[in-house]
Write a structure and sequence with these properties.
By secondary structure, this protein is mainly alpha-helical. It is built from ten helices and no strands. The longest helix has 20 residues, at 33-52.
Length: 167
């Protein structure tokens, strides 16, 4: 079922504007957290594509900020995030980490329900993460004042012993 829904997801190369991504999401007959993750990924790609069309560094950052501000005001995007927050447990850890990273790039506040749900899901399963998933998750935590994910030492143990742990 997951692959059928992803087949309907919009391909990043065909994205021209935010409404294309939202139409793709709304045209699907059933919500899937994987479809929502694909839409969020497409939005990150679109944001990057629009920002790189700017001539100067200020224009780049201004475009990124304006894009995120416009996106947060869309009711379809908010509904998608709320549904994703409810179904975050269905995502595998790699998809959850990538979605978390993508939402951070889209300037999603950490106090939002989807970010809290993703963070709790990932922190709860941190010992089950493989190295590529950790490589996506840890940089996404950069800049957070709450470093409780590091406080119990489990992450440091995983990172230090990763080559020695048989899976």
């Amino acid at each position: 079922m997951q692959s059928q829904l992803l087949d309907k997801a919009i391909k990043a190369e065909t994205v021209r504007e935010v409404s294309d991504v939202m139409k793709s999401m709304l045209s699907s007959s059933a919500f899937s957290p994987y479809l929502a993750a694909q839409c969020i990924t497409s939005l990150v790609f679109l944001r990057k594509k629009l920002a790189f069309e700017q001539d100067d560094e200020f224009g780049f950052f201004q475009t990124c900020h304006d894009f995120s501000k416009e996106l947060s005001s869309m009711p379809e995007y908010s509904a998608m995030k709320e549904q994703l927050a409810k179904d975050v447990g269905e995502l595998d850890l790699n998809s959850a980490a990538y979605t978390f990273m993508s939402l951070r790039r889209l300037e999603e506040p950490m106090c939002s329900s989807v970010m809290r749900a993703l963070l709790l899901h990932l922190k709860k399963n941190i010992l089950d993460m493989d190295l590529p998933t950790l490589a996506m998750f840890m940089p996404s935590l950069d800049g957070l004042k709450d470093r409780s994910v590091l406080s119990d030492g489990s992450l440091m143990t995983v990172l230090a012993l990763y080559p020695a742990i048989s899976r």
